[in-house]
């Protein structure tokens, strides 16, 4: 039994996305012996939180507590928990709560889970929030005091990685790290990052860390140029402000990661900036379809691909890379109480580049584990 309540910011309808979430208690999933309870210290704010709060991808099962970049201290660990997690450990949970793990003989065999690609589970992945666990209970996310998670999807935060960095890495970071690795980002590669927001800024940091020759920020406006260069971009393209940008950059990139969250984007032109045999990986998830003509694909033998978050194994690998290469995400800390204001600010495109909510009351035990740091790192 636990002596804590699960409380968080409840989205009760579509209007909650406009800064109208309401603080209240919620019932976590029923406890199972491979679960872990986490006292949340940090919770990143992802673009997906807005899509979900406004039912942009389809009806959200309200009430919904969003947040799938969760870091905190393990306060209860089930007897059958995986991964040697102990009470008091600093741990994280990303956007996935469960998958079939290829364990149910009555289900179709799942090559994805069998090969540690759980986010592509063919029997249905369970989202950290706005979804339903295998036992039928609703899943609730991290804009909250506590989170209950399946231990398989709980990743230890290594010593040397600040919790405010670990949190947004759990979704924003892994969603771009995974395709950069899968499509061979490294020396000799010219990489374009479309949309220099939360995910996009991580993509710039990782493409640099992996040794790409060129890492070019492709954003709409000139306004972010200086910050993008400071972040590590070797060049910058402002698509809404630079006439003829697509022609000027035609056939330039081996790999493009597009994090654009709206269907209102010049996909044809993005594709035309790919070199022969190049690949554009779309990770941004607009609410409307993106119209494309096949010609830029046909003429350059180019590819259009997609990618969904990443596995717990890849998250652990990415965490270690951040420690080894001393990668500093740009995060801005916001108190949990200000979550409504923070989501409105995200919609306006204000973060540079990721907001992370912090729970003051839950911060104390953490100080012994890892020292929190300042804004704008
Ligand atoms: P974000 O911080 O708001 O960044 C999104 C970026 O998209 C903005 O910074 C902006 O870049 C660009 N953008 C927005 N509207 C645009 C438009 N009309 N035309 C062109 N560019 C536009 O959000 P985020 O947290 O990075 O999330 C980005 C997207 O990824 C969301 O759709 C989210 O749901 C999705 N996502 C997908 C996965 C996955 O597994 N595939 C995981 C996490 C998130 P500029 O201002 O630089 O132009
Ligand atoms: Zn996310």
UniProtKB/TrEMBL annotation:
Annotated GO biological process: alcohol metabolic process
Pfam families per record: ADH_N, ADH_zinc_N
Transmembrane segments: none
Cofactor section: Zn(2+)
Protein name in UniProt: alcohol dehydrogenase (NADP(+))
InterPro entries: ADH-like_C, ADH-like_N, ADH_Zn_CS, CAD-like, GroES-like_sf, NAD(P)-bd_dom_sf
CDD domains, A to Z: CAD1
Every Alcohol dehydrogenase-like N-terminal domain range: 33-159
Similarity annotation: Belongs to the zinc-containing alcohol dehydrogenase family.
